[in-house]
Task: inverse folding
């Protein structure tokens, strides 16, 4: 690839702020190693943008911070060829920053506005998956009105148990890195989870719990525009009942086995679901779809990530490595898809 001027956008007022900075650090090092002119652009938790120089690193702040639109204008003025989206979560992965960049004609890595917004909205993404026949768990979109009071939460919990049984997977509608996800196993735990997670949102996604093998299916866009399914990663949390934040990012929090210890038939089925989910949402460049493979061999899609983590502990780089692609080559491929 020719030498490019690349702004690596990262940080932001998201619950995944620190993970974003960690991902960006790897991308900055890789892109500089490939000879590109890299400009780290850090967004603080206050939403102000900091433009570092050619020697700055991820997370560096400056004395001259800018609000969003001033930052977008400066990106235009310095003539970046592409913005590398190092954001995770509801700031930068949900389509809002993509929309701002689109409006001024700046290119960026990853999916566009619509795919980003829909994938981040878990109930909306479920509707898309159901519309094209992608298997998902039974679910209820639970309004949060009245859940702040214990009596209301108990009534809702009883109704959910009648519909979905126990355990129930309770999720906030938008979020990543398993932030805002609980799996209560009793009616009392469910009522408590409904109370805790209802704060600041209008509804919760409550899904039937499916026991099985946790897997993830990465998809990478090829230079010719085609889609390539990466090897499946099997996730085995060492503590807890699912792949939560600690299992994802704490050292030795989980075993991540690639290729997954599943049959060739199951591997093809899960890879196919990753490709179908990518296409159904209209993703671009890269995606990672999380799947549960039930003991009877039936896979269910949980969600699709449009900006998968790129930290040393992240799943997508491990899948790419198993496919013979170095971390630097993965980052270059993500940039190439944006061009």
Result:
């Amino acid at each position: 690839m020719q030498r490019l001027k690349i702004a690596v956008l990262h940080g932001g007022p998201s619950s995944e702020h620190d993970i974003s900075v960690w991902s960006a650090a790897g991308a900055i090092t890789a892109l500089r190693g490939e000879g590109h002119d890299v400009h780290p652009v850090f967004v603080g938790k206050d939403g102000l943008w900091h433009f570092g120089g050619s020697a700055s690193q991820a997370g560096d702040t400056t004395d001259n911070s800018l609000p969003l639109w001033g930052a977008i204008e400066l990106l235009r003025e310095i003539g970046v060829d592409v913005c590398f989206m190092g954001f995770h979560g509801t700031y930068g992965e949900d389509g809002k920053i993509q929309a701002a960049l689109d409006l001024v004609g700046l290119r960026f890595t990853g999916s566009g506005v619509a795919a980003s917004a829909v994938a981040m909205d878990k109930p909306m993404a479920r509707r898309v998956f159901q519309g094209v026949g992608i298997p998902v768990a039974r679910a209820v979109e639970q309004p949060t009105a009245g859940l702040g009071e214990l009596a209301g939460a108990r009534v809702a919990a009883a109704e959910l148990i009648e519909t979905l049984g126990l355990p129930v997977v309770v999720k906030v509608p938008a979020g990543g890195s398993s932030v805002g996800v609980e799996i209560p196993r009793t009616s009392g735990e469910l009522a408590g989870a409904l109370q805790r997670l209802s704060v600041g949102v209008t509804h919760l996604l409550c899904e039937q719990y499916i026991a099985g093998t946790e897997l993830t299916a990465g998809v990478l866009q090829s230079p010719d525009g085609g889609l390539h399914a990466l090897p499946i990663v099997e996730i085995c949390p060492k503590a807890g009942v699912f792949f939560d934040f600690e299992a994802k990012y704490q050292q030795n929090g989980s075993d991540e086995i690639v290729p997954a210890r599943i049959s060739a038939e199951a591997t093809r089925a899960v890879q196919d679901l990753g490709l179908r989910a990518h296409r159904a949402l209209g993703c671009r460049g890269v995606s990672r779809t999380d799947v549960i493979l039930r003991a009877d061999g039936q896979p269910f899609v949980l969600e699709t990530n449009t900006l998968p983590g790129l930290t040393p502990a992240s799943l997508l780089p491990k899948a790419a490595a198993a496919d013979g692609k170095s971390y630097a080559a993965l980052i270059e491929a993500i940039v190439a898809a944006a061009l």
